[in-house]
Amino acid sequence: MTAWLGPAEWQAVALSLRVSLTATALSLPLGIWIAWLLARRRFPGKQVLNGLVHLPLILPPVVTGYLLLLTFGTQGPVGGPLRDWFGVTLAFRWTGAALAAAIMAFPLMVRAIRLSFEAVDPRLEEAAATLGASRLRVFATVTLPLIAPGIVAGAVLAFAKAMGEFGATITFVANIPGRTQTLPSAIYGFLQVPGGEGPALRLVLVSVAVAMTALLVSEVLAARASRRVAGS
Amino acid sequence: MTAWLGPAEWQAVALSLRVSLTATALSLPLGIWIAWLLARRRFPGKQVLNGLVHLPLILPPVVTGYLLLLTFGTQGPVGGPLRDWFGVTLAFRWTGAALAAAIMAFPLMVRAIRLSFEAVDPRLEEAAATLGASRLRVFATVTLPLIAPGIVAGAVLAFAKAMGEFGATITFVANIPGRTQTLPSAIYGFLQVPGGEGPALRLVLVSVAVAMTALLVSEVLAARASRRVAGS
Amino acid sequence: QDGPTIFAAASLKTALDEIGAEWSAQTGRDVAISYGGSSALARQILQGAPADVFISANVEWMDAVEGSIEGDSRRDLLGNRLVLIAPAGGDAAPVNLVPGVDLAGLLGDEGRMAMAQVDAVPAGLYGRAALDWLGAWDAVAPRVAHADNVRGALAFVALGEAPLGIVYATDAVAEPRVTVLGTFPAESHAPIVYPAGALSDDAQALDFLDYLSGDAAASVFGANGFTVLPRE
Amino acid sequence: MTLEVRLSQRWPGFALDAAFTAPDGVTALFGRSGSGKTTIVNAVAGLLRPQAGRIVLGGDVLLDTRAGRFVPPSARRIGYVFQDGRLFPHMDVAANLLYGRRPRRRDAAFSDVVDLLGIGALLARRPAALSGGEKSRVALGRALLSNPRLLLMDEPLAALDEARKAEILPYLERIRDTARIPILYVSHSVAEIARLATTLVTIEAGRVTGAGPVAAMLADPGAVRFLGVREAGAVLAGRIVAHHPDGLSEVAVSGGSLHLPRIALGVGHGVRLRIAAQDVILSRAAPVGLSALNILPGIVTAIRRGDGPGAMVQLACGGDLLLARITGRSADAMDLREGQPCHAIMKSVAVHPDDVGG
Amino acid sequence: MTLEVRLSQRWPGFALDAAFTAPDGVTALFGRSGSGKTTIVNAVAGLLRPQAGRIVLGGDVLLDTRAGRFVPPSARRIGYVFQDGRLFPHMDVAANLLYGRRPRRRDAAFSDVVDLLGIGALLARRPAALSGGEKSRVALGRALLSNPRLLLMDEPLAALDEARKAEILPYLERIRDTARIPILYVSHSVAEIARLATTLVTIEAGRVTGAGPVAAMLADPGAVRFLGVREAGAVLAGRIVAHHPDGLSEVAVSGGSLHLPRIALGVGHGVRLRIAAQDVILSRAAPVGLSALNILPGIVTAIRRGDGPGAMVQLACGGDLLLARITGRSADAMDLREGQPCHAIMKSVAVHPDDVGG
Ligand SMILES: Nc1ncnc2c1ncn2[C@@H]1O[C@H](COP(=O)(O)OP(=O)(O)OP(=O)(O)O)[C@@H](O)[C@H]1O
Ligand SMILES: Nc1ncnc2c1ncn2[C@@H]1O[C@H](COP(=O)(O)OP(=O)(O)OP(=O)(O)O)[C@@H](O)[C@H]1O
Ligand code: MOO
Ligand SMILES: [Mg+2]
Ligand SMILES: [Mg+2]
């Protein structure tokens, strides 16, 4: 297996995993919060927020990547201050790849979680409130466990999307081996040259294997979560 | 406004709408069926089906497009018979673009609908069965209305994704102005030349406007559907 | 990462990977090569990408980053030729690409001419110029299937979806599923030039750039079908 | 149409092994919370596929686990009023009511049921905007309107006030008697059961502990065990012989005649009366000058002393059996013994107006 | 701690305008299905924010729409037993029970409640695997264990069998009397109300039609109107004076003494007795030779003829008021008039064992 993929390719696999996991894990709390806002609250600008969340889905990935580059690049209005004040650079770093993947996957994550929020019976939350539970406790002990299947679904969608994300990532952080070259970027590279199909196919298979494993794990987790609710 | 976009660009807008609407509308029944299979049935190969559905999310779009070309091209194992027996050609046609968009959007659609299926209280379906309703009638009169918010969410996700899909589409059906040139292909073209950012931005704005409108409509529809359930 | 970072047009991958490995072996330094479309790479450079060397697939994008080029390090590194291809194993005869040639006729009633996007991507721009020169553009224009880049055009022909295509000689060389019907006269389009330049005064970067212009590199480029341009 | 049920179902901590036959009329399932009533009803409806069992309705085998036969719920034509309502949240009340109706029209039967249940004003509302009792009324109406050949009712009246119950019970009686649909009826209320049921099946911890005609089951001095002291009582069959101008109806029973508040049935009609054991006072001598109008002479047929201070006395009054619950002290003071003649005193109003069954 | 409630809420087709004060003890809300009971209870819990109103609990203003004050449900410390259960489906029974408890330990109170409700075997189950009655018991336990300063109970016992009710009622009495938590209790059962409640509030179509101490409300001959004929009856206060060896306890009431089945309280304890109007027989002469042990002399204080054949007679027996429902025919035959002496005959067992309240 080690012989089957070259070291650069293993790097790409490792980086893709790191990027996808980071993107999923870090965006999950925000995703839950935004999903909650959209599902449960009324506030001015709600539809704007909703639109913003969906934007990466609507825009061609290259455009999203370019916007990210303009915004979070070291010359950008956010990237500049980030670097100068906090010493954080995103552009051309794996962290930037994670940001791109997170943003591209965000609409999928939010939608799944939001749907689950909407399916929670508010009467159960009311019951928890009458038992003295603060909003936070109600959320943590009633709402959150009940939306667990949605969170799993949202996370796995985001992870899969992050594993496959290419256009925005390569546009934002380029395709630097060992630093920003994810599996899809590596696959792209191979597909750009004669005879690259073989290596590309190998990487595709690795990518599919990783994502399918994540998918299977998620199915088991989701089944467990909903079995808990369904009884016995 | 008409002066603001050239005729070729208007064509791209119209084509993108046609492709996205067709992709969404035609894949919806299949999406509902697959979501139902995954949410409600146990069968051998279920996880394989689940994986297949997610594949377009995981693979770089170019790879998906290439696989589509291999399969549904006129020389492909599906495309050939389609052409010879039914006279249906997908390659280089807007119908092919719709197919590509549908496949790319399919995982999003299926996930949203599946989550909604899982949230339906099976005791209501049981109640309908005791009232003599056939499985089909239970599905049409109880299950389907109850998952309406999920269907709307799935459809709007799919539509948004279809509006933004680029990599698979251009790889499968190329970019033939007036026939297969969708908004993202046009945007991509502009971005390839120095100074093309301006025209690209115009098209991006059009694309965003269209998708946001769809989003707003969907919010209204979903709110209506869930208000029906919540009473009064 | 203690070596230079190279931003290079994706079509150079096979050759550059080999040359980079040789250079690393000689110097004991790593080299990271980020492959992408020339447009994306140039934009990234304009946004402060940490690239030490840029190798563009066309002159325009090199011109766009002119301000970032270190001193007089810019040079025209490679040349390429444009060829007319057809699926291998067909009955297509070699075509004499002289003005007045009826390429549209060769496409038959339905066939498409596969090209990289003619108003955007370098290979497309060259191809369009060549067809213009041949006086064939007006007849062929409505029949062109624009791919997002030259590799997409190659795939359309390789898979038999398009009877004819215009790609770089370097692409056709290694693709057994296509045959070259003819090479466009060099004077039919602007010279196909891959300019290279240093983006920093890093000694290793300059060293690598010089290595690219050396004999060892030349033989690798040559083996991949590129014309090595003499250093003025 | 007879319903035969034999079921086994095991869950961790609970085992059901029940067999009974429900003849025409209303069969009441009576048992404590968690004894397995809903489980049985679910199996009859086809919502639970028990581990073993056989269910036959009017010769039609609905379930036979041995033979691998299982008729799906939708093909059973069994109306089910669920313990937990289960209204369709996305349909208004009218659509809920019509869901099982064929043709789906607001016909006369629809209007009847709507009027009876007092839900005419709710037709355009969705279930979320209904009160608890309103929900159960709609659920009841929905099942009634589905033309079932068997009705399952799992505590259908538990959320209803007495007045509403008093309105609905006669309607259920009408269904029982005119539509001739057998009804399997789960209830904790002996009053409801005594009034409606023809057959009583008692369940304890997943097992059938008794089954038989209601009158005999309730007149059994041992019935106290499962009914509770307050609920024991006899059920008598009678016939209306006169309606008196002061608002009382005279009903002939085998042992004499009783005066009850006006019964809305013609002279000559048969009625069922329930007389709770605790509402009967015994007297050796024929009593005089009491406000109680109903006095039946009888013979003591059984005396059962309980653990407490009470005693259950069974009297034969004509061909019927009466139960009287008195104190042991009184039994001693009156020197009651089997075979002894005795008078049963019942206030006319002690024969509960809504225990007057058609 | 007193609860003052004033509310207005309008929905299409329904208007609630209710005001009442619930003193210490149990206040029963009694009214027909759809009259607005759950709406009131929801507003007290803070789950409904009514269009107008003011709710004050022990001086603490929970709601004042005029002043824009609204205390959220979680800060009200009000335990609510919902009409529809609302158990947390993802938690087992034990976790449900402990949800509102602080500290969240299985302490003595936990064991007490679990034993009382008979749910010890269910602790590890999830709600989906419970029967209807089991669910309501767990819901009851969950509210009881949350240390509330006010308990709201919306038909908490509707799904329970008589035997289970008989076990739970004394416990609720203990809460009422020892924990001194006021309880707002919705029920359709007059027996439950008579036993538990100190105050009765009757609701009709969104309006309070009567409010006052239970004894007075139930002894009002006009109470028939809202209680139904079967449910009218008086509530008497008494004191245990002796436990006799034959299993009877002697209770002194103001007008004499009564013999009841053994009451599990010491001599000297006060008890509340409910005597349903229909369980009382009247006699002009002092009766002899009857199995009924309880005979109280009294004076007729009111006679109210109903529309039907019945008449409601109110007697003063000592300082207490009794109600007797007899037929008009008997009233005529006995020539009953106000001020006339008369004997009330009650079977000892007619004083319902579970109407014996502490
Ligand atoms: N959200 C709502 N919209 C419209 N009407 C409503 C809504 N909620 C309740 N109602 C109506 O208000 C009235 C009072 O309802 P409520 O639930 O308080 O009744 P209830 O006295 O508790 O009855 P029950 O004994 O049947 O539970 C009912 O007629 C009900 O239909
Ligand atoms: N899915 C299940 N898993 C485990 N135990 C179950 C399940 N469903 C029901 N039970 C248990 O089976 C027993 C019988 O339940 P059932 O619902 O039939 O009772 P019931 O007689 O209807 O009681 P109630 O009067 O309280 O509604 C109960 O002890 C219940 O806890
Ligand atoms: O290397 Mo290119 O920019 O695809 O012609
Ligand atoms: Mg049950
Ligand atoms: Mg209510």
From TrEMBL, chains A, B:
The chain crosses the membrane at residues 20-39, 51-72, 92-117, 138-160, 200-222. It is a multi-pass membrane protein. The keyword Membrane applies. InterPro entries: MetI-like, MetI-like_sf, ModB_ABC. Signal peptide: none annotated. Residues 13-216 form the ABC transmembrane type-1 domain. It holds the Pfam family BPD_transp_1. Keywords: Cell inner membrane, Cell membrane, Membrane, Molybdenum, Transmembrane, Transmembrane helix, Transport. It is found in: Cell inner membrane; Cell membrane. One of its GO terms (molecular function) is molybdate ion transmembrane transporter activity. One of its GO terms (cellular component) is plasma membrane. Belongs to the binding-protein-dependent transport system permease family. CysTW subfamily. Part of the binding-protein-dependent transport system for molybdenum; probably responsible for the translocation of the substrate across the membrane. This is Molybdenum transport system permease. It comes from Oceaniovalibus guishaninsula JLT2003.
UniProtKB/TrEMBL annotation, chains D, E:
Residues 5-230 form the ABC transporter domain. Keywords: ATP-binding, Cell inner membrane, Cell membrane, Membrane, Molybdenum, Nucleotide-binding, Translocase, Transport. GO terms for molecular function: ABC-type transporter activity; ATP binding; ATP hydrolysis activity; molybdate ion transmembrane transporter activity. One of its GO terms (cellular component) is membrane. Residues 289-355 form the Mop domain. It holds the Pfam family ABC_tran. SMART domains: AAA. SUPFAM superfamilies: MOP-like, P-loop containing nucleoside triphosphate hydrolases. PANTHER family: ABC TRANSPORTER I FAMILY MEMBER 10 (PTHR43514). This is Uncharacterized protein.
